[in-house]
User: Which sequence fits this backbone?
């Protein structure tokens, strides 16, 4: 709507720059955290993670009982590698579970109706929710990494810093899913957003599978498709960075892929692309929500 | 000075097939500051769409709207208005105090003022004893009251209430009505969208009626209620002559064996009619004036407009 002249102007209260532009973001982020804490998905994710680590410990113990003692370094590397794989998967699931109903579904329910009627810009709601989810997922990531580190330390008797380096990069993984979910949740109900998120997860994973099969079977088109999938959903780029940073390849080189297939060397450009991808999705979500007509 | 002003405000929706649907059609509303204003219309008349246009939730297809002189859609104007939507669901895991604190923070109120205002609005709606209770433990009426409380946190100059008494029992309705009247006493403009015409009649100074997106009446409630009055007269000595006399003063609506109903333009015609009948020899058993309620008038205006 155009700002035009009016005969009657009521004095508007003066608020500081901080109050106008930043306070609403943190208020929304705070509420998002509170809301996420009370949802069982957060606790559920942690329990599943703990269960998976216990299973891994059981497998090692069983191997040991059969007299086939794996060297401690190999055990630690396997714990780190598979722990990080699980972290990626469950953080993506958790990000989707938390963010898939963030906007359209909340508007439909009526919980956002009062919020949009306050002196808040729509983009501040999107950014606030993103920060709230990011905070929760960071806590989740730290707990998972601590569990993995404990597993490695138990075998090695010393810290395995690769866990934390890989984990820090791995935080981009759930953030990517949060921004993807926020974008689609502007217009779609949560169930459709969750399905789209799963489809994108599949696209991301298909990159490695297509590259491996394409290389082994010498199918250049499949390799091209794999590269397209890698740009469409750059989770593979992140996964490779995590493998390299986790520092396990020297001990268990086959973790990088099947024999005869070289893992592409991750570059800083890959990380920049993922960062740009997340920011781009977030900006698009802000723009779309800003234009959304709310008629509830 | 106007609290709400719209100039040819129009909203056209397009269906998936490209068909145009005019929800609000060149609406010119003028809501004076300090009054309780009833916004009426049948279902689908465009009331909620108008509210959404005023709040900036929808962008208009044409025309302009102003709230307290500021263009609708300007987020800053929402610092001085309060709003309670018809369909709301609160974050029910919060306590009443946390809920109000959340909204006070969104309004940008500083910490000390937040405490004061939360205290004041809880007292205003009579929920000070439930400040630590979670909203999920609240009844529908209490939720409505806490909803009104959040709309008053910023000491608004204008409060927009969309069906604030829907789903309330008669006692709850009365409480909300009292709250509205107290707000009016404090000089707050209240824009009330309600289906409950009896309540509008009891609380509003002015009303606007819209039908099919168009304004069909706007003005003081007194003015609206000045419309024709009906009187029922019973005779001890019925005669066709009485009907002829009555017809010279107004419109004879119905005639029974010993009674007739007449609609007159103004109330002050009634004594003249009675005098004429008595002078002609009519012996009257009863004269019952039937003032049209807002509901009768609403139906009449809307039906007339539709036809």
Assistant:
């Amino acid at each position: 709507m155009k700002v035009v002249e009016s005969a009657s102007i009521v004095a508007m209260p003066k608020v500081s720059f901080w109050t106008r532009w930043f306070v609403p973001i943190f208020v929304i982020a705070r509420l998002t955290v509170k809301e996420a804490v009370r949802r069982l998905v957060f606790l559920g994710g942690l329990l599943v993670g703990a269960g998976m680590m216990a299973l891994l410990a059981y497998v090692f113990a069983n191997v040991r009982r059969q007299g086939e003692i794996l060297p401690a370094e190999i055990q630690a590397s396997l714990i780190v590698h598979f722990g990080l794989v699980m972290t990626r998967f469950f953080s993506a699931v958790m990000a989707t579970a938390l963010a898939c109903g963030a906007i359209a579904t909340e508007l439909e329910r009526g919980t956002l109706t009062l919020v949009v009627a306050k002196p808040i810009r729509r983009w501040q709601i999107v950014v606030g929710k993103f920060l709230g989810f990011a905070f929760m997922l960071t806590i989740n990531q730290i707990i998972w990494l601590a569990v993995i580190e404990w597993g490695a330390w138990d075998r090695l008797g010393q810290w395995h810093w690769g866990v934390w380096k890989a984990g820090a990069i791995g935080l981009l993984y759930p953030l990517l899913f949060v921004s993807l979910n926020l974008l689609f949740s502007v217009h779609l109900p949560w169930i459709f957003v969750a399905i789209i998120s799963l489809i994108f997860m599949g696209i991301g994973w298909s990159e490695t599978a297509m590259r491996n099969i394409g290389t082994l079977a010498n199918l250049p088109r499949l390799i091209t498709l794999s590269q397209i999938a890698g740009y469409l959903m750059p989770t593979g780029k992140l996964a490779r960075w995590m493998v390299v940073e986790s520092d396990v390849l020297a001990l268990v080189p086959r973790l990088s892929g099947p024999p005869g297939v070289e893992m592409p060397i991750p570059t800083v450009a890959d990380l920049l692309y993922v960062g740009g991808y997340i920011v781009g999705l977030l900006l698009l979500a802000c723009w779309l929500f800003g234009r959304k007509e709310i008629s509830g | 000075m106007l609290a709400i002003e719209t100039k040819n405000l129009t909203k056209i929706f397009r269906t998936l097939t490209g068909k145009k649907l005019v929800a609000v059609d060149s609406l010119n509303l003028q809501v004076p500051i300090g009054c309780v204003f009833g916004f009426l219309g049948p279902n689908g008349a465009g009331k909620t769409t108008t509210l959404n246009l005023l709040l900036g939730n929808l962008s208009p297809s044409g025309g302009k709207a102003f709230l307290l002189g500021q263009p609708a859609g300007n987020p800053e104007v929402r610092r001085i208005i309060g709003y309670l939507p018809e369909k709301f669901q609160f974050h029910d895991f919060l306590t009443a105090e946390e809920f109000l604190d959340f909204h006070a923070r969104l309004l940008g109120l500083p910490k000390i003022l937040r405490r004061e205002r939360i205290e004041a609005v809880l007292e205003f709606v009579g929920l000070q004893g439930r400040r630590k209770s979670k909203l999920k433990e609240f009844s529908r009426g209490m939720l409505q009251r806490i909803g009104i409380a959040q709309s008053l946190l910023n000491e608004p100059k204008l409060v927009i209430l969309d069906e604030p008494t829907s789903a309330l029992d008669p006692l709850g309705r009365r409480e909300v009505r009292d709250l509205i009247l107290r707000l009016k006493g404090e000089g707050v403009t209240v824009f009330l969208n309600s289906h409950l015409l009896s309540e509008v009649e009891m609380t509003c100074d002015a009303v606007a009626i819209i039908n099919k997106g168009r304004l069909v009446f706007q003005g003081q409630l007194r003015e609206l209620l000045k419309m024709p009055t009906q009187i029922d007269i019973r005779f001890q000595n019925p005669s066709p002559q009485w009907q002829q006399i009555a017809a010279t003063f107004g419109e004879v609506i119905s005639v029974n064996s010993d009674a007739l109903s007449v609609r007159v333009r103004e109330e002050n015609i009634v004594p003249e009619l009675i005098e004429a009948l008595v002078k002609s020899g009519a012996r009257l058993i009863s004269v019952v004036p039937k003032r049209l309620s807002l509901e009768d008038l609403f139906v009449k205006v809307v039906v007339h407009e539709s036809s």
